[in-house]
Specification:
Radius of gyration: 17 Å
EC number: 2.4.2.1
Strand content: 25-35%
Strand order of the largest sheet: 5-8-7-6-9
Helix content: 25-40%
Protein name: purine-nucleoside phosphorylase
Pfam family, one: PNP_UDP_1
Largest sheet: 5 strands, mixed, barrel
Number of strands: 9
Shape: globular
Order of helices and strands: EEEEHHEEHEHEHEH
Distance between the termini: 23 Å
Pathway: Purine metabolism; purine nucleoside salvage
Keywords: Glycosyltransferase, Transferase
Length: 254
């Protein structure tokens, strides 16, 4: 079977069920792909899938790699380099994150409009890859037209979506109440341990990006709330059908 995907999807914590929507699929385990890291996090299956979604050829990462797993940024973002070589033009990224905006509810979908990078290592540190300039512009890290299309689809289908700034941190600890408040003061609406490195490398490679955070817990408010990885997965599972509906329709209309 031949496939020529122009769109790729990265499925974050607890969001792998979208892969079941992909038809005519075949997959490769990360451990069987040369130079690919292996995901070590519960809820990340660790396979690269090719097939169709919304009637279009796509590729999907079921499970991603994180800086906190001990990988360096070049390893974390290696799949994005592969996507570029395969001709990917649009990247959909998803993640589970903690909400810091008082208007958010657990299970909300937050369309990412921008990000703040708190990772201690930059994915473009070192010799410049020829996919982009030494000093890439990041004024539109998340494509405005794709955001407008997602808003239109969400309105049609009566799906509640929020907009916000994603704050990327190294983890693996969940945030303290003081950290939540700090990130909120600095302009973040949600915080998580992924996405930012991949988006930076995608933009450096000329790939357009659309991002969604599933708000799986809340922090930074007057009453601290404990959170576990299991609770994050459960909240992500509940929001998956809505996220899948929007992404499928976006790809279909591309």
């Amino acid at each position: 079977m031949t496939t020529n995907p122009k769109t790729a999807i990265i499925l974050g914590t607890g969001l792998g069920q979208l892969a079941s929507e992909i038809t005519d699929s075949y997959e490769f385990s990360y451990k069987d792909i040369p130079n690919f890291p292996v995901s070590t996090v519960e809820g990340h299956a660790g396979c690269l899938i090719f097939g169709k979604l919304g009637g279009k050829d796509i590729m999907a990462m079921k499970g991603r790699f994180h800086y906190y797993e001990g990988y360096n940024m070049q390893e974390v973002t290696f799949p994005i380099r592969v996507m570029h070589e395969l001709g990917i033009e649009t990247l959909f990224v998803s993640n589970a994150s903690g909400g810091m905006n008082s208007e958010f509810k657990i299970g909300d979908l937050m369309i990412i409009t921008d990000h703040i990078n708190f990772f201690p290592e930059h994915p473009l540190h070192g010799p410049n890859f020829p996919t982009g300039p030494r000093f890439p512009d990041m004024h539109e890290a998340y494509d405005h037209k794709l955001i407008e299309k997602a808003d239109e689809i969400a309105k049609e289908k009566n799906i509640r979506v929020m907009h916000g700034v994603y704050t990327g941190v190294q983890g693996p600890t969940f945030e303290t109440p003081a950290e939540y408040k700090m990130y909120r003061i600095l302009g973040g609406d949600a915080v998580g341990m992924s996405t930012v490195p991949e988006v930076i490398v995608a933009r450096h490679s000329g790939i357009k990006v659309f991002g969604v955070s599933v708000i799986t817990d809340l922090g930074g408010f007057d009453v601290p709330v404990e959170v576990s990885h299991e609770e994050v997965q459960e909240a992500a599972n509940m929001a998956q059908p809505l996220m899948t509906e929007i992404m499928r329709e976006m790809i279909k209309r591309a």
